């Protein structure tokens, strides 16, 4: 993960929580003990927080026509790569190389947050997020989630909402 700034070190936060605080956005932090043996980061988060997997969203990085793009989809489903490409005006999408995703966002796999990334990437949030008063996304490390309104997440990431998730 990226080197912590002085502000992050003082606050004990991650780039994601620092970005939320700086923006004055209402959010709640949920922390839990990450189990490295658990087969799914997102499902582990939903179970640990006692939240429906439909309200917990995973952050995935894909390559759309040679440009890295962030997709935020429910952990209960999968990313529809064709729909993602279409949502950003592209033709083809594939999952990004994990090492490249980590380098570009400044986060480790399983802890990539759509907020506070090292390099701002185009972002698409699955339209189902708008069905919930709040959703949970990674706060920037495994075992740490933030809960916030989907509209706030979309505003902060300059994201578009589109049906990019599938069951």
Q: Given the structure, what is the number of helices?
A: 6
Radius of gyration: 15 Å
Described by strand count, sense and barrel closure, the largest sheet is: 5 strands, mixed
**Strand coverage percent:** 25-35%
What's the shape? globular
Terminal-residue CA separation: 31 Å
Give the class from helix and strand content and strand pairing. alpha+beta
What string, H for helix and E for strand, traces the elements in order?
Answer: HHEHEEEHEHEEEHEE
The residue-averaged pLDDT reads: 92
Number of strands: 10
Helix proportion? 25-40%
Unreliable spans are 1-11
Strand order of the largest sheet: 5-2-3-6-9
């Amino acid at each position: 993960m990226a080197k912590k700034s002085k502000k992050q070190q003082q606050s004990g936060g991650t780039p994601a929580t620092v970005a939320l605080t700086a923006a004055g956005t209402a959010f709640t932090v949920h922390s839990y003990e990450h189990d490295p043996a658990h087969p799914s980061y997102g499902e582990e988060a939903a179970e640990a927080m006692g939240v429906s997997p439909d309200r917990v969203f995973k952050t995935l990085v894909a390559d759309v026509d040679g440009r890295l793009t962030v997709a935020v989809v429910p952990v209960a489903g999968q990313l529809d790569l064709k729909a993602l490409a279409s949502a950003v005006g592209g033709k083809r999408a594939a999952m990004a190389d994990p090492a490249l995703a980590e380098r570009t966002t400044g986060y480790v796999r399983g802890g990539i947050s759509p907020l506070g990334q090292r390099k701002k990437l185009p972002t698409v949030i699955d339209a189902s997020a708008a069905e919930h008063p709040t959703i949970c996304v990674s706060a920037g490390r495994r075992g740490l989630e933030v809960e916030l309104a989907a509209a706030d997440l979309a505003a902060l990431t300059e994201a578009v909402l589109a049906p990019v998730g599938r069951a």
